[in-house]
Specification:
The chain is globular. With 377 residues, it is of the alpha/beta class. The mean pLDDT is 94. The chain has helices at residues 32-45, 68-81, 101-109, 124-130, 136-148, 167-179, 197-203, 212-228, 247-253, 280-288, 302-315, 322-329, 333-336, 338-346, 361-365, 367-372; strands spanning 2-10, 12-13, 25-26, 51-60, 83-94, 114-120, 154-160, 184-189, 232-235, 238-240, 257-261, 266-269, 272-276, 295-299, 320-321, 350-352, 356-359. Helix 2 links the parallel strand 4 and strand 5. Helix 1 packs parallel to helix 2, helix 2 (68-81) packs parallel to helix 3 and helix 6 (167-179) packs parallel to helix 8 (212-228). The strands form four sheets. A nine-stranded mixed β-sheet has the order 9-10-8-7-6-5-4-1-11, with helices on both faces. A three-stranded antiparallel β-sheet has the order 12-13-14, with no helix packed on it. A three-stranded antiparallel β-sheet has the order 15-17-16.
């Protein structure tokens, strides 16, 4: 039976964060009931047999704007149309300020067993700069509420590399982050994407762009401090206590099959990548008429599939297994990429033995430069 990860996209937000480039929309929460109906319609239309759902992930947007009963309706539709594994990891992203203990208790009782809180910073000024709608006190309260509601698999998201942040301040914040006791931590470098508020502020000179050197220092400090605190880094941006790695995201990084549901969701399987329309109106109209929304598809050539396997696998601290690539693609990595591997090892960006290729710490800092070496000409 094929193992499958389900991703469910909830594109609604109270307001758009200044750095956000995801498929999301603010000011349209009145349409959430119609969206839930459309989403359930899509779940029914894309019913799968012969597949076992191992993980379910509610992402956004802000999934915690859904009521607990709406989350329950969506999960019920999933279970009615898909075989869901016993003990499946079921994650919901939530923003502090949109949740309380009672809501979280209802989510937990309804089947959500992993909570991902978008904290981003523990500094009030930084949260305001990022356009977050919560303060430090609300973030800390959200962690306490999650524990009180029975969540024993908690992930917290943070952003590093903010302009003007001192390395001392970052060290202090890391101690505060560790003290929260989450089982999983995701740390992402601030990127200024086109079309975001930060990009506009940078364009008109109202803010400085992130300093690459300062960002690298923060990353290196985080790697050391979190390791000393018992967190195992298993991917470029992710750390976990033993046994708490994100099973859902591991599907992406190891080339597994995943099905995306909802406006703007992506899917992958059988060497083909699919993307649903990002237009919320088009999505609602199509499903309202009982039809699937428009999907775009990209068939991966064997060479592109190999490149993606290299890029995704190298994100993992365990690296790319030579035998796995030989089984999947019928090639010897050390022969196929002989020149690239030799150069990257000499530059100190890659470690190589007979069984694995792994990024060094410096390689993780310059990951994109490494990945480019494995792309098709």
């Amino acid at each position: 039976m094929t193992e499958l990860a389900l991703y469910i996209h909830i594109p609604f937000c109270r307001c758009r964060c200044h750095y956000c480039s995801f498929v999301s929309t603010a000011g349209r929460m009145a349409e959430m009931p119609a969206y839930v109906c459309a989403l359930i319609g899509e779940i029914n239309l894309r019913r799968r047999t012969g597949a076992l759902v191992k993980t379910i992930y509610f992402g956004g947007g802000t999934p915690s704007l859904l009521s607990a009963s709406q989350v329950g309706e969506i999960l019920a539709a999933v279970r009615a149309n898909y075989a869901v594994a016993e003990g499946a990891e079921i994650t919901l992203e939530a923003n502090p300020g949109t949740i309380d203990k009672e809501y979280l208790q209802n989510l937990r009782q309804g089947g959500i067993n992993r909570l991902s809180l978008g904290v981003q910073s523990l500094d009030g000024g930084e949260l305001e700069f990022l356009g977050r709608q919560h303060g430090t006190a609300e973030a800390l309260a959200a962690v306490c509420q999650a524990r009180a509601a029975g969540f024993d698999n908690l992930s917290l998201d943070f952003i590093y590399g903010l302009p003007g942040r001192s390395i001392r301040k970052w060290r202090v914040m890391l101690r505060e982050i560790i003290a929260l006791g989450a089982e999983h931590l995701s740390l992402y470098a601030l990127t200024v994407e086109e079309g975001t508020m930060l990009a506009e502020l940078a364009r008109c000179g109202a803010m400085a762009l992130p300093d690459p050197d300062a960002t690298a220092r923060e990353y290196e400090v985080a790697c050391r401090v979190l390791a000393q605190a018992g967190y195992q880094q298993y991917e470029i941006s992710n750390w976990a206590r033993q046994g708490y790695s994100s099973r859902h995201n591991m599907t992406y990084w190891t080339g597994g099959e995943y099905l995306g549901l909802g406006c703007g969701a992506h899917s992958f399987g059988g060497g083909v990548r699919y993307a649903a329309t990002e237009n919320l109106d088009a999505y609602l109209v199509a499903l309202g008429a009982g039809c699937l929304s428009e999907l775009t598809e990209e068939v991966l050539t064997p060479r592109l599939a190999l490149s993606e396997a290299m890029m995704l696998g190298l994100r993992l601290n365990s690296g790319v297994a030579v035998d796995d690539i030989r089984t999947r693609f019928g090639i010897d990595l050390h022969e196929c990429f002989k020149t690239e591997i030799k150069e990257l090892v000499a530059l100190g960006l890659l470690e190589s033995d007979n069984r694995h290729l792994k990024l060094t710490l410096q390689g993780r800092l310059l990951g994109n430069e490494v990945f480019l070496r494995f792309m098709p000409p």
